[in-house]
Amino acid sequence: MIDLKLLRDDPDRVRASQLARGDDxxxxxxxxxxxxxxxxxxxxxxxxxxxxxxASSSVRGASPEERPAVLERAKAxxxxxxxxxxxxxxxxxxxxxxxxxxPNVVLPGVPPGGEADFEVLEQVGQIPSYEFAVKDHLEVxxxxxxxxxxxxxxxxxxxxxxxxxxxALLELALVNHAMAVAQRHGLVPVIAxxxxxxxxxxxxxxxxxxxSEVYKLEADDLYLVGTSExxxxxxxxxxxxxxxxxxxxxxxxxxxxxxxxxxxxxRGIIRVHQFDKVEMFAFVPLEEAEAEHARLLELEKAFLTDxxxxxxxxxxxxxxxxxxxxxxxxxxxxxxxxxxxLELTSxxxxxxxxxxxxxxxHRTTEGVRPVATLNGTLCAIGRTIAVLLEVHQxxxxxxxxxxxxxPYLGGVAELTPA
RNA sequence: GGAGGGCUCGCCUAGUGGCCGAUGGCGGCGGUCUUGAAAACCGCUACAGGUUCACCCCUGUCGUGGGUUCGAAUCCCACGCCCUCCGCCA
Length: 418
Known about the structure:
By secondary structure, the chain is an alpha+beta fold. The chain has twelve helices and 18 strands. The strands form five sheets. An eight-stranded mixed β-sheet has the order 1-11-12-13-16-10-9-4. It has a three-stranded antiparallel β-sheet with strand order 5-7-6. Strands 8-14-15 form a three-stranded mixed β-sheet. The chain is elongated. The N and C termini lie far apart (54 Å). The protein binds one RNA strand through residues 39, 42-43, 45-47, 49-50, 52-53, 55-60, 70-78, 240, 242, 361, 368.
């Protein structure tokens, strides 16, 4: 939810943000109108309630003669209060609906436009070249007996895979390395629930435009999370935090319906319904959000560098931001088999948008204020394995293991087909 | 799945129709005292909304929603959540 004070003070900024995202600026005016209507309803209700309160407390002191008249007056006011409360409730509902319709206000500097309008900030490493015909990650993985998509499909359907042998060990190594890095930088390791209540899902903004991406367990009114951002954000919901910053690194399985991506990335494990991920999450004062965002990006870059991958960093365009994000940086690694960049990590500055919905605040000298929330991928494991297998493959089918991962793999320097 | 118990201000707790936004303790903050600290004593100590430059003031909030009533933390109904015991179970 955006800050209504900002909207009142500077509606043009919100309109400009809507335009940059390619969303309807008229929604901003609808929200302004709903806000005004609610305020009028609240004021009217407060006055009536005050009068009614006075009337009912005068009932006790009334003499027997005047009692019937006083009671009559109090009753009449009670009826009016009831009406006023009904219209106040209606105004609140209308305001909330209008409020939820507006995504976060983008930060200055975010490129306007859609998915293709990102800005490349930097490239780390050289695009690798190979003196043999590169295989894609599935072929490499199958020869290593690390990935089994056929049995994944047999057991669970399309877009499911088994990680076996070296594949499974690689996952554990990546998790361990990610958690070690996280701890070294002061993030608290967390194993998060993958099933959450509707409030958590809604509060993080995943039930809006992307609701069809989400698995829901109807019988239990629970959702399967698509990222541990959801449980990590909701971890402190309805709390007033004493000391900031608070930083976590959460591990969980992630579930995505991939409803709108038929025919896209169908091969291998680049786009599957279930994968595991280590996600960073930070709660900081609003003024420190941008600095924290830079910090999360640095951690992501360092992690990819540890894995000896080539990647570029992009500043995502406004229209490609999630509804909660005010700015988003993606790290995209080079995928040799397709000779293209593939998103491996993503870090979003959600400013106070999620915190407002989730009721996460902290005390400042000016009072209790919503915090800023930020998230960032430390390691999306399945996709990272896919890229590692491709980038570090050799002609003989073996795969070079980056030095950073060796301690977690019994010291081996390469994976070889059995 | 079966049977009970409970949800009040950061934590614990008092409170069975108007004098309750709500008692007391702990914790926290400020002050007195002290070279400093502790102890003791005094004071302050929820959030949201409306109005306001600000103070004041007004309104709402005792798990949530509804009902009864002139008036509800207190009575009624529904729901949610937490806990305990039994059963089952990684």
